[in-house]
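Notebook entry, structure prediction.
Reason for the run: the old model in the group folder had no record of what sequence produced it. Starting over properly, with the input documented here first.
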Amino acid sequence: MPEENANRSPVALEQRGVSPDQRMFSPSAARNLAPILAVLKRVLPTHGMVLEIGCGTGEHAVCFAEAMPNLTWQPSDPDADARASTSSWIKFSGLNNVLAPLDIDVCSRLWGVEQTAPFDAIVSINMVHIAPWAASLGLFAGAGRLLRTGGLLVLYGPFMRDGTHNAPSNAAFDASLKERNPSWGVRDIADLERVGEASRLSLREAIEMPANNLSVVFSCDGP
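New structure, fully documented this time:
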């Protein structure tokens, strides 16, 4: 897969079930919903607008929106099948605080949501390690443009700290990602901190999660 197209061609690293109504079922989403929700309920504001980058099947979006009814959840994904699944999950859930999924390319200069900004938070789950580094750069640049002062960028997935993996399994996973696509890989929090500085984003906390994952929270500083 050419690197320049990698961010437009998402690949699921798991087998997903699909229902007749186009809802997809992600085994990893089922496993990590509860711990991620616990973090989000602690760090997100009680009211506001949240933009999700890389919503995948849509299971996260409807779960989080149901658990936090005073937040409006705007899912997005560049993959048409993911958006179809998310739309079906929204219809199935009957929730009115989840908006129709958008097609957002984080590497684009404009995301098409500028009229909705500023957002109170941007959430991206299991995205930055299965996308080229340019996607991380675009994600942080977009967050710097679109978050309100004090708004949060929340990432979830495997991460390195100062060049070191936190478990042998993550090192093996990193190697398998790079074998699949050299532009992918487990990102280092220190590198993301440096990228964030250019977009007024500073590291607020890194939270240990099950299965050697982390939730990494950045805060948008004032202008």
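Summary: Confidence is low (pLDDT under 50) at residues 1-11.
The old model has been moved to the deprecated folder.
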